[in-house]
Amino acid sequence: MSIKIYVPRDTTTLALGGEKVVSMILAQAESRGIDIELVRNGSRGLFWLEPMIEVQTGNGRVAYGPVEARDVAALFDAGLPEGKSTHRLALGDPEEIPYLKKQQRLTFARAGITDPVSIADYKLHDGFKGLENSLALSGQMIVDEVKASGLRGRGGAAFPTGIKWQTVHDCAADQKYIVCNADEGDSGTFADRLVMEADPLMLVEGMIIAGLAVGSTQGYIYLRSEYPVAHQIMKEAIANAYQAGYLGENIQGSGKKFDLEVRLGAAAYICGEETSLLESLEGKRGVVRFKPPLPAIKGLFGQPTVVNNVLSLAAVPFIMAHGSKAYADCGMGRSRGTLPFQLAGNIKQGGLVELAFGPTLRELLDDFAGGTETGLPMRAIQVGGPLGAYLPQSQWDTPLDYEAFAAIGAVLGHGGVVVFDESVDMTEQARFSMEFCVEESCGKCTPCRIGSTRGVEVIDKIRAGDKVEANLALLDDLCETMIDGSLCAMGSMTPIPVKSAFKYFPEDIALAHSRMSIQTEAK
Amino acid sequence: MNDLVQWDLQEVQEVITSLKHKPGALFPILHGIQNLAGYIPAESLPLIADALHQTRAEIHGVVTFYHLFRMTPPGRHSLEVCRAEACQARGSRALEAHVKAKLGIDYHQTTTDREFSLEDVYCLGNCACGPSIRIGDDIIGRVTPEKFDQLVDELTTVALEIRS
Ligand SMILES: Cc1cc2nc3c(=O)[nH]c(=O)nc-3n(C[C@H](O)[C@H](O)[C@H](O)COP(=O)(O)O)c2cc1C
Ligand code: SF4
Ligand code: FES
């Protein structure tokens, strides 16, 4: 019998030489006359160990990583095909790796285990159970179950998903739409990508269930163009789901219908904002719409539309398979279930960490990050993407919970955690936040469009030591104007990282000044 | 230097015709044309406008709103460097400076030998293992200045071999 060897096909594995590893494995197996079956699984999200390869043995899987092409011959010498653990890269049973074992994987339970586009694999691991249950229920019963789970939107705003679905359910219309927001623009986030690359059928299933719940027969996944690998895998998964009768007319003989298509974005951060996204899907400039009307009432092509983040939709199959209680039993306060945190930036052990809400930021880092990559102490942590606050040590004991973060003027957002070591110049980070707003503003509101340009100029003056006090006051005013006069969070939240950088790290102002004068002298 | 990408208006028209029936057809059409030609040739705007019953100005407005769509031919390799925070925390600012110096161009420019077009990008989803760059559809992680030089050497050597 042939030996099963798994090498992920996700972006990070490929970015670290995964294809070269695959070629070496095939070459080694051939030259040694070993019969292997290569499976391209998804990543388990332990990115610092990628490329992580796994071998199926009689006693479960054995992992090795991070593997480079030049290690493969030695790994074969050391008995990789038999799953021996003598080589220095041997990691043993992947499920026992503490980084994975300490997690609570509800959404990412299958990640890295299955072939992401295989319907058979998906079904073997509990796939389509939620859909099966949902097909026996009325739309209202599905909406009720999702409400009871306490699921809140994972795209950033944390709006209760069940309530949004209720609104769309209650609208009478010939055509309603399910739109999956897969724009994942936040730096430091990759959970949506991992869903689409490791378990895309879960997203397909979640969207079909959403369609059944609200009475929609057409779904679109709006996927950012920066994710070519996710695009490819998603397309394969959808094609396979059509082939197997899970999409299209008469889903599994139920008489129900659902069509699904992936649409690519075009590199605009603002198109993650739901109304800008809808404009873009309609083929227009991604300019944010006024609300009301809510997209739930007048969304895509003017029809009632559910817009949900990938993770929100991906949580639904679990809820419908295991019941809302199983989901709601995890978490704290009004933050129910799990959030896949994404550890990124300057850390040794970057990756996806799915946990129930509740532990503190410090616990998350202590338990998983493994210190900084550079070895220098951590100094600032940006949580919740480019519109999230930079937090100093003194704030790290805040529990990972929507309300607790709001209470310190921060956001959890989509769960991105970006670590900076002590070499960071926080005035430079503040400048970048403003610059990003200049680049990505849709241009509709003056405070966002012009205010951010002024913001860059004022920060440049502060960094140059030019009338620092007066310019700090000016920056404060400018931030207030942006907060009050912006239609969406692009303009109204850019002040969050900016203000936090100056509030918590004021000592960097003088440092920036001295650095910049040294640079000027050198010129 | 002649353009490396070959396309003719007939093919562009075929892309438009095959996609124009879709709801919200403009994006699929623009992606289709850019995949074919490497950019959105000005000559294609009236064809798109015609097919979708919109004005040329409207189509132009959409093309220019989005960073991805370009109206000039790219170099042989489109290179994107991630400028976003998680990569900054892992040394991307130094990498950016190195890339620009090595290629002798800034963002949104193409080298005179037309080998590389350089663009900035805000996150490629490889934030745990940055600094990240993208060349064509390949994303590459943990890119140091040395690794970048090696990549450039490999890409330009291959190109020479094909040409000779
Ligand atoms: C500037 C901006 C960018 C956003 N980017 C995203 C994004 O990339 N992905 C996402 O799901 N939501 C994003 N959102 C939030 C969406 O507007 C919307 O709240 C979300 O898609 C709703 O889905 P959910 O309820 O499942 O979270 C963004 C919002 C703003 C203001
Ligand atoms: S705040 Fe900025 S991005 Fe949002 S609508 Fe106004 S101009 Fe557009
Ligand atoms: S921040 Fe560079 S890949 Fe995400």
TrEMBL record, chain A:
Belongs to the complex I 51 kDa subunit family. Its cofactor is [4Fe-4S] cluster; FMN. Keywords: 4Fe-4S, Iron, Iron-sulfur, Metal-binding. InterPro entries: NADH-UbQ_OxRdtase_51kDa_CS, Nuo51_FMN-bd, Nuo51_FMN-bd_sf, Nuop51_4Fe4S-bd, Nuop51_4Fe4S-bd_sf. It comes from the Bacteria. It comes from Neptunomonas qingdaonensis. The lineage of its organism: Bacteria, Pseudomonadati, Pseudomonadota, Gammaproteobacteria, Oceanospirillales. This is NADH-quinone oxidoreductase subunit F. GO terms for molecular function: 4 iron, 4 sulfur cluster binding; FMN binding; metal ion binding; NADH dehydrogenase (ubiquinone) activity. CDD domains: TRX_Fd_FDH_beta. The keyword Metal-binding applies. It holds the Pfam family Complex1_51K. Coiled coil: none annotated. Residues 427-472 form the NADH-ubiquinone oxidoreductase 51kDa subunit iron-sulphur binding domain.
TrEMBL record, chain B:
[2Fe-2S] cluster binds at C82, C87, C123, C127. Binds 1 [2Fe-2S] cluster. Gene3D superfamilies: Glutaredoxin, NADH-quinone oxidoreductase subunit E. InterPro entries: NADP_DH_HndA-like, NuoE-like, NuoE_N, Thioredoxin-like_sf. Keywords: 2Fe-2S, Iron, Iron-sulfur, Metal-binding. Its cofactor is [2Fe-2S] cluster. GO terms for molecular function: 2 iron, 2 sulfur cluster binding; metal ion binding; oxidoreductase activity. NCBIfam families: PRK05988.1. PANTHER family: BIFURCATING [FEFE] HYDROGENASE GAMMA SUBUNIT, NADH-QUINONE OXIDOREDUCTASE, E SUBUNIT. Belongs to the complex I 24 kDa subunit family. This is NADH-quinone oxidoreductase subunit E. The lineage of its organism: Bacteria, Pseudomonadati, Pseudomonadota, Gammaproteobacteria, Oceanospirillales.
